[in-house]
Amino acid sequence: xxxxxxxxxxxxxxxxxxxxxxxxxxxxxxxxxxxxxxxxxxxxxxxxxxxxxxxxxxxxxxxxxxxxxxxxxxxxxxxxxxxxxxxxxxxxxxxxxxxxxxxxxxxxxxxxxxxxxxxxxxxxxxxxxxxxxxxxxxxxxxxxxxxxxxxxxxxxxxxxxxxxxxxxxxxxxxxxxxxxxxxxxxxxxxxxxxxxxxxxxxxxxxxxxxxxxxxxxxxxxxxxxxxxxxxxxxxxxxxxxxxxxxxxxxxxxxxxxxxxxxxxxxxxxxxxxxxxxxxxxxxxxxxxxxxxxxxxxx
Length: 298
Description:
Blueprint: E1 4-8, E2 14-17, E3 22-24, E4 31-32, E5 43-48, E6 51-56, E7 61-63, E8 66-68, E9 70-72, E10 78-82, E11 85-93, E12 97-103, E13 106-110, E14 114-118, E15 123-126, E16 134-138, E17 143-147, E18 152-155, E19 160-163, E20 166-174, H1 175-178, E21 193-197, E22 201-206, E23 209-215, H2 216-228, E24 232-233, H3 234-241, H4 248-268, E25 276-278, E26 283-286, E27 293-296
Parallel strand pairs: 3-4, 21-27
Antiparallel strand pairs: 1-2, 1-11, 3-5, 5-6, 6-9, 7-8, 10-11, 12-13, 12-20, 14-15, 14-16, 16-17, 17-18, 19-20, 21-22, 22-23, 24-26, 25-26
Helix pairs in contact: 3-4
């Protein structure tokens, strides 16, 4: 119950890539490419609307002889990342259902290949975090869960994980509804926003109010979300923001602190704090209302 694409790298090695996997020069990338022509975070795999797609981040993509910003993966597709650097898609596995976890405070989301269930507050994050209440991982053909007591058990639809008195239910999510798309909130009344993303600076404009200017890591975080055009796992964003850091706990701490400070700046400027939205399952996105406008200048 895991969607994945099998690809062959330029050196002939084969890799199975899933939603959220990074392709680039970073040694921590799911498909690392040691080539000066490749950006450190060149592209990402994303599950959207029932398809696995490759999305350009800081590098270029080409398919069928023309540049593309993103393209659905299928067997036989050749993707050019740079001159002479070509990935060949050998197989794409799209099951009818993918496995997810849900609880009263956690909306159903597909699980990444490895996830940690955290308490205080209860949330599911991508990757292995020491000290988590439970760890979940995919073996390829099945899923496993291990609690703090060290016991390991199969994880399948109907399995219940209890954390601090709250039950998380493993559920089967139809693939067609599991894909993520850019979120646009319906209804409600809010001042329209115009967001100009310049990578190192971001200007948030509202009618009748001074522009909020973001810089540094806050600007880069918003700019990366703009470039992605949809939800992304926090780990992918953290690796883009701090490419030299390999310690997952340090990345998580830096990301949480930066996100908290960004929301404080939004609140102080009277910009809605849900502009940068987390879903409780490890994904982050820009929450845009119907009349908001984003100008991507990155």
